[in-house]
Specification:
This protein is mainly alpha-helical. It has helices at 3-7, 10-18, 28-63, 66-94, 96-107. It is flat, with a radius of gyration of 23 Å.
Amino acid sequence: MYAQEKVADEPLVLLAYNCKIVGESSQGETVDEAMDSHALEMYKILMEADKLRLDILKHMIDILTPLQAVELLVALKKLPLCLHEWSKRRDIQMGITQLLNTQISSTSGPPEPEP
């Protein structure tokens, strides 16, 4: 059975469904075991995905000329940085950053005394 098939673990779903109160379980050890198993399978999937990503990159580098390979590596390094900057600008344009900052400051710490 592949790791992807084990992630959607039916016993975990049934344990969650049978809980009467969110966060509470009369079967604590069973839940812990199911969650540990789930975490291990997720880890395996991430390792497989990372290995696949590196294998593909190595094969691409072999196909490209040295200059093309350098340009590809620079572009791959630059892409996440550009996406991050673009998303920050978009958040500011949409007013999301101000909304999030307002919600964070209003929920953190003790309430301010009224004058």
